[in-house]
Design goal:
Largest sheet: 5 strands, mixed
CATH architecture: 3-Layer(aba) Sandwich
Strand content: 5-15%
Number of strands: 5
Helix content: 40-55%
Number of helices: 7
CATH class: Alpha Beta
Radius of gyration: 23 Å
Distance between the termini: 86 Å
Order of helices and strands: HHEHEHHHEHEE
CATH topology: Rossmann fold
């Protein structure tokens, strides 16, 4: 009798281990997000690297963080339909609200200003080489980040 109950207990444990886990509901997902919000990462990159914006977005999401990507929100200055100053102000607000700043590709004047703002706000800044995209994004040091050549 005792062998049967031990077998039943073992079967019960195995059933619980291997039972399919139910998909979380929208309410469960919202609750998890509110209890454990992910860090916001501002994606700084030169206009010349605009075409890599989707890959950069994916890279940040794959890293388990939430991207704040100006090129995804404002395209290229909203196709020049609003003053650049308004878009820059919005971008600086996003940067101020971010937890970290990640720099992708070469350092243009605009990206250098964004880095300066981040440093003055004591935000961590990380640098990435995107010359291997779409295959790879590689972390680099600030010393190996290259300045963009101006036309």
């Amino acid at each position: 009798m005792e062998a049967v109950s031990a077998k039943a207990a073992a079967d019960d444990i195995l059933d619980r281990i291997f039972a399919p886990t139910p998909k979380p509901s929208a309410l469960d997902q919202a609750e998890e997000t509110l209890r454990h919000p992910k860090k916001l990462v501002y994606a700084a990159m030169s206009n010349r690297n605009f075409f890599w914006r989707h890959h950069v977005q994916k890279f940040i999401l794959d890293s388990g963080l939430v991207p704040l990507s100006p090129f995804m929100l404002f395209e290229y200055y909203l196709l020049h339909t609003v003053p650049k100053a308004a878009v820059r102000e919005a971008m600086n607000n996003l940067l101020a609200r971010s937890d970290e700043v990640w720099v992708f590709g070469t350092l243009s004047l605009g990206v250098k200003v964004q880095i300066g703002i981040a440093k003055r706000l004591n935000k961590p800044v990380r640098y990435f080489d995107i010359s291997e995209l779409p295959v790879a994004v590689l972390p680099i040091s600030v010393e190996t980040a290259e300045e963009e050549l101006r036309d």
